[in-house]
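Hi again,

Forgot to attach this to my earlier email, sorry! This is the prediction with fe (ii) ion bound. I've pasted everything inline since the attachment limit keeps bouncing my files.
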Amino acid sequence: MNPVLEEIEALYAMHGDNVYGEGVTMAQHALQSAALAEGEGADDRLVIAALLHDIGHFLQQRDDSYGYHKHDHSGGDWLARHFGPEVSEPARLHVAAKRYLCAVEPYYLARLSPASVYTLSKQGGPMSPAEMAAFAAQPFAEAAVRLRRWDDGGKEPGLTVPDFARYRSRLGRLLEEGRGAV
Ligand SMILES: [Fe+2]
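Structure tokens for the complex follow:
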């Protein structure tokens, strides 16, 4: 098996049962997010970005019971070493996308989970107009906003979705393609 795929599986085996303030484990959250992405017809790279968007939580000591607040950056950096930007950048921007959506959609913040509202306070709060413009100009902003909605939706206690095995061949292929580049 690809050694990075082994590392991903080991990280989820070790930390996937962690719960960071939601009604689902981190493994359930990852799988639900990926299932939502696939259900909306996202391409394979964005499905894998949804699956791995929170991997940064597993790479650092947690800040508190809500995990590692800068997991978007640690995860984005780690993913960029192994996959192309279509995987790493939407994941890197998924917290920025939350801050963006809080600023542009009046009811978005009200629908966030309590844990997401708490971490928002640690992540800079809703974006300022200048931050919004800078975010929207980034090439993966739209993908990050899509991923963010699957992230928010992937927190349903008791929902059964396909397990990790469904994504193994895609993960292996994207890794073998040389950091996901076609
Ligand atoms: Fe998430």
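The chain is about 60% helix and 0% strand. The pocket of fe (ii) ion is lined by residues 29, 53-54, 151 (CB under 6 Å).

That should be everything now.

G.
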